[in-house]
């Protein structure tokens, strides 16, 4: 699976190219997220504009990355952008919309971070 990673301001944008983030690609997705965190980024925006389906392993990759961020001395956060309706519905059903903030655009997600 191709994953585009682009630093922007003090955040990094992570954009899966695949329409499905499932068990077949979740390992790569998780590795990409953790690699970005290990490089020192603390403000991550996952651009979900291409993703129309995510399963528990894909969601697990997001949660795992968030846990890594929160465990760091300088805690960070993950924001979601451009989330498609089927994924929004799933996040609501399993109540992960309480954990991950969602924004209609990457720009809005990036600007939602407050840096000191």
Tell me briefly what this model is.
38% of the residues lie in helices and 25% in strands.
Fold and architecture overview:
By secondary structure, the chain is α/β, with parallel strands linked by helices. It has four helices and seven strands. The longest helix is centred in the middle third of the chain and has 16 residues, at 56-71. The protein is globular and about 30 Å long. The chain has a five-stranded mixed beta sheet with strand order 1-2-4-6-7. Strands 3-5 form a two-stranded parallel sheet. The chain starts with a strand and ends in a 5-residue tail after the last helix. Helix 1 (26-38) packs parallel to helix 2. The chain has a single domain, classed as 2-Layer Sandwich (Transcription Regulator spoIIAA). Strand 1 and strand 2 (11-16) form a beta hairpin.
Can you tag this structure with a few keywords?
116 residues; alpha/beta; Transcription Regulator spoIIAA; 5-stranded mixed sheet; two-stranded parallel ribbon; 4 helices; 7 strands
Helix content: 25-40%
| Global structural class | alpha/beta
Number of helix segments? 4
- The fourth-level CATH homologous superfamily is STAS domain
Question: N- to C-terminal separation?
Answer: 35 Å
- Please tell me how large the radius of gyration is: 13 Å
CATH class: Alpha Beta
Give the percentage of residues in beta strands.
25-35%
Looking at the overall shape, the CATH architecture is 2-Layer Sandwich
User: For the largest beta sheet, what order do the strands appear in spatially?
Assistant: 1-2-4-6-7
Tally of discrete structural domains: 1
């Amino acid at each position: 699976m191709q994953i585009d990673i682009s630093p922007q301001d003090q955040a990094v944008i992570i954009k899966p190219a695949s329409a499905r983030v499932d068990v077949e690609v979740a390992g790569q997705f998780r590795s990409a997220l953790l690699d970005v965190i290990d490089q020192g980024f603390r403000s991550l925006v996952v651009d979900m504009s291409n993703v129309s389906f995510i399963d528990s392993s894909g969601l697990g990759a997001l949660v795992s990355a968030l846990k890594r961020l929160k465990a760091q001395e300088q805690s960070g956060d993950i924001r979601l952008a451009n989330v498609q309706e089927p994924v929004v519905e799933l996040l609501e059903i399993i109540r992960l919309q309480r954990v991950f903030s969602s924004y209609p655009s990457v720009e809005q997600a990036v600007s939602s971070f407050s840096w000191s």
